[in-house]
Amino acid sequence: MINWKQDFRLLAFIQLFLGILMGIPTILSFHFKETQAQQAFLLAYACMLLFCLPILFFTRRTENHHLSSRDGYMFVTMTWIMATAFSAIPLLASGAYVDYSSAFFEVMSGFTTTGATVLTEIESLPKSILFWRSETNWLGGMGIVVLFVALLPALGVSGTLLVGAESVGPTKDKLTPKIKNTALILWSIYILFSLLETIMLRFGGLSLYDAVTVTFSTMAAAGFCVKNASIGTFSSAYVDIVVTVFMMIAGANFALYYKAFSGKIHSVLKDGELRVYLGIWGIVSLFSALSLTFNNTFETFWRSLRYSAFQSASILTTTGFATADYLYWPTFSQVLLLLLFFVGGCAGSAGGGIKVIRVATLMKMSKSTISQRIHPKGIFRVRVGQISMSNDILLSISTFVGVYIATGLIGSVIISLSGTDMLTSFAASFLCLGNIGIGFGEVGPTGNFAFFPAWIKWVCSFLMLVGRLELFTVYALFTKSFWKH
Q: Which of 130, 131, 128, 82 is nearest to 108 (CA)?
């Protein structure tokens, strides 16, 4: 049975928590003397209080703090929807966005670390609004609920179910016996890398504002940028290299960093998913660079490698930054980037997509199946690195990939009803589902979602949500068994 009182009480608390985090861009709106933005943030606070205070009043005597798995799915899904709904208010009220559908789409893109945008002109908008837009990236990267569990453990509930419903990957890494300590460790590592990248970008000549906003989107594997031409605006090899490195850091399993900091370097180096992840990036970057060089897209191999490594990392980690318009690259290079659409980051990373561990497992399953056909009496285990996959995990991975592809294809069909071409419809669906941010056709590196009608933006928002919460957390709410007592 769903514990509605406790779910709504926690939902109210987390909205107030987000309101506190909105204080940073609110202060910036006063610093930059952006009057309309100030009023927009104050309106958002008023709406949050009107929603939260009555709920907290009527649930103040809640005695049953028990949460079931259904509560976890319900709470996490509602948290992301309501957080987006309230966070979109400043974007609309400031005049930066033409309608609520666009503002909701933009913030959902931010929290889910997709990075897709409806903006055609970015740099003329209020800096405080753009900062909040980038901050939603950073908050969504490691997870809103994970941060909530880490900082507010005194609410009398276990965060295990909540974190499990939000975390990504076929397996969940519990670094310590207490889930709140695990959440705190993950966010501490996340903040540490964020500070390091900000410092390095400052050395590259970026202003503090630019360095922080780029870091927000890099470490979240997100892709929002306060510049019209994304990272290409800076025209700096140093900045490209720094961002590439930190995109790859964000796309790896954060549990590995904890192991590394704990002195278990050997265990990290033997991690099968990490090896595949780095291998895919290295191979695609190299072959794409060779193609770019042979086709004279760039004058030297090293310049080709700089751009191919950046763009490969951007799509593999589902970040969505751009330093060049790859739609003008050779077809071979474009196909390699398209293939990365169906990989994604590592489990336990800030990246989206199918995840490297699932792709690697499917490849090993294919090999095992072929071996089984050749040797019917043989026993073949599927292993990725040091991990032997159980039949339950194999079934879970196969089911996930099947539902993921089906969702993306259905999304493509629905988006095509708006009259867009096949490539754009396909790319828009899968870049939203995979939280990638940039794609092909009219949603390529120089395009955006502004031309879509409002109803398509809601469809894309749904795709981004189910992709970020890995399908089943959201889909469970649409089953009869979920609502049966």
A: 82
Separation CA 348–CA 377 (nearest Å):
36
**What is the tens place of the pLDDT at every residue in 305-328?**
999 999 999 999 999 999 999 999
**String of b and e for 354-375 (b: at least 16 CB within 10 Å)?**
bbbbbbbbbebbeebeeeeeee
Judge contact between 114 and 436, C-beta under 8 A: yes
Look up residue 291 and give its DSSP letter.
H
Contacts 24+ apart (CB under 8 A), 413-418: 414/456, 414/459, 415/452, 415/456, 415/459, 415/460, 418/452, 418/453, 418/456
Tens of pLDDT, residue by residue over 9-29, are 888 988 998 999 999 999 999
Contact 433, 112 (CB under 8 A): no
**What's the rounded Cα separation, in Å, for the pair 222 and 437?**
7
- Contact between residue 158 and residue 367 where contact means Cβ atoms under 8 Å apart: no
The region, left, alpha or beta by phi > 0 then psi within -120 to 50, assigned to residue 396 is alpha
The DSSP result for 306-326, as a single string, is HHHHHHHHHHHTT----SS-G
DSSP string, 385-423: TTEEPPHHHHHHHHHHHHHHHHHHHHHHHHHHTTT--HH
